[in-house]
Amino acid sequence: MSRNVLRAAALLVLGGAAALAAAQEGDQPRYERGARLFAKYCVLCHGEKGHGDGQAALLYQPRPANLTVSPYPDSYREKIIRGGGTAVGRSASMPPWGRELSDADIAAVLVYLRRIGTEAKR
Q1: Between 3-26 and 103-120, two packed helices, what is the crossing angle to 10 degrees?
Q2: C-alpha to C-alpha distance for 110 and 30, rounded to whole angstroms
Q3: What per-residue confidence (pLDDT) applies to 13?
Q4: Is residue 102 in a domain?
Q5: Which H, E and C letters describe the chain, residue by residue?
Q6: What are the angstrom distances between the C-alpha of 30 and each of 60, 79, 105?
C-alpha cells in the first residue's frame, strides 16, 4: 500500500471530514491534472460534472455512467479507463484509454473522480 493511501486512511480515522480535506489538498496537483484530462477525454460523454449527461450522451445506449455515484473501487475504475467497457463486461461505447493515458494520467483521473464523488455527496 502506498504512503499516500496509508496517510489518507490514518487521517480519515483520526479526523474525519477535516482530515479528508487535508488529504485532498495534498493531492491538489494530481486533482488538477485529472480535471484537465477529464475535460479532454471524458466530458463529451460523462458531462462537465461527471453526471453522465455530456453532449454525446444521448447517442449511446446504455447511457454513460454518472461517475459521481459510482459504487466501484479505484481498481475497477482503473480497469475500465485502461481497457474500456468491454474489459469489465460493460458497454463497448466506453473506449479503452490505456494506450493514450499513462499510469500517472490514470491515477490523476482517479483522484479527480474520487473528489467529484465526494463533493456530490455534500
Answers
A1: 60
A2: 9
A3: 45
A4: yes
A5: CCHHHHHHHHHHHHHHHHHHHHHHHHCHHHHHHHHHHHHHHCHHHHCCCCCCCCCCHHHCCCCCCCCCCCCCCHHHHHHHHHHCHHHHCCCCCCCCCCCCCCHHHHHHHHHHHHHHHHHHCC
A6: 30, 19, 9
* Residue 21 located in a structural domain: no
In contact, 72 and 88? CB cutoff 8 Å: no
Taking CA atoms, 12 is separated from 20, 38, 110, in Å, by: 6, 26, 18
Domains of the chain: total: 1
Rg (CA), the chain: 15
pLDDT for 19-63, tens place per residue? 455 456 678 999 999 999 999 999 999 999 999 999 999 999 999
Residue 90 sits in a domain of what CATH number? 1.10.760.10
Q: How many residues does the chain have?
A: 122
Tell me how far apart the alpha carbons of residues 64 and 61 are, in angstroms, rounded to a whole number: 8
Q: Work out the number of other CB atoms within 10 angstroms of the CB of residue 66.
A: 16
CA distance 80 to 19: 29
Residue type, 29: P
